[in-house]
Amino acid sequence: MGSAEELKGMAERQELEAVERSSTKASALIEDARRALATCRSIVGKDPKSAVLLAWDGVAFTTLTAALALAGYRVTNRMGHHRAAVDASRYLLGEDALMSRIGSLRRMRDRGMYDMDPPDVNEITEALDDCEQLIQLVARAVQRASTR
């Protein structure tokens, strides 16, 4: 099954909702993610727990949302929507290794929030590098879409 069919299936299961494609929205989300990434890098040594929360919610999830907006989708508010964003972006972007690491960031955030498992600064720093790579990947897609 191709990515279009996979995304359509996710929409049929109400994991995604079809919306109007928007490179403008995607571009704004990328800028938000870049600012949040800079904040994460500035606080990771002093406040690793806040850095990992912001890394997921403000950087990775925001960037995945940008990729979905570019494709004409958004996640629903159903349980598991963060996982759905990772899965859908894997179909859109490929990059299985990167998307697996982004999924690991989601789980790291969950462990910190729900299990009170303190995050490791080195792990967060690596995750921030992955977030930067994700931003660059989606930003290139936004740029290509904007020049069409």
Summarize the structure in words.
The chain is mainly alpha-helical. It has one domain: Four Helix Bundle (Hemerythrin (Met), subunit A). It has helices spanning 3-12, 23-43, 48-71, 81-93, 96-114, 121-146, and strands at residues 16-18, 73-75. It has a two-stranded antiparallel ribbon. The relative contact order is 0.18.
Task: Give a quick precis of the structure.
This protein is mainly alpha-helical and 148 residues long.
Please render the helix and strand layout as text.
Blueprint (H helix, E strand, L loop, with lengths): L2 H10 L3 E3 L4 H21 L4 H24 L1 E3 L5 H13 L2 H19 L6 H26 L2
Antiparallel strand pairs: 1-2
The CATH architecture term is: Up-down Bundle
Measured as a percent range, the helix fraction is over 70%
**Cα radius of gyration in angstroms:** 15 Å
Largest sheet: 2 strands, antiparallel
Structural class: mainly alpha
Q: Number of folding domains?
A: 1
Strand share of the residues? under 5%
Report the end-to-end length measured between terminal Cα atoms.
27 Å
Tally of extended strands? Answer: 2
Which fold name corresponds to the CATH topology? Four Helix Bundle (Hemerythrin (Met), subunit A)
The neighbouring-strand order within the major sheet is: 1-2
Count the helices. How many?
6
CATH class category name: Mainly Alpha
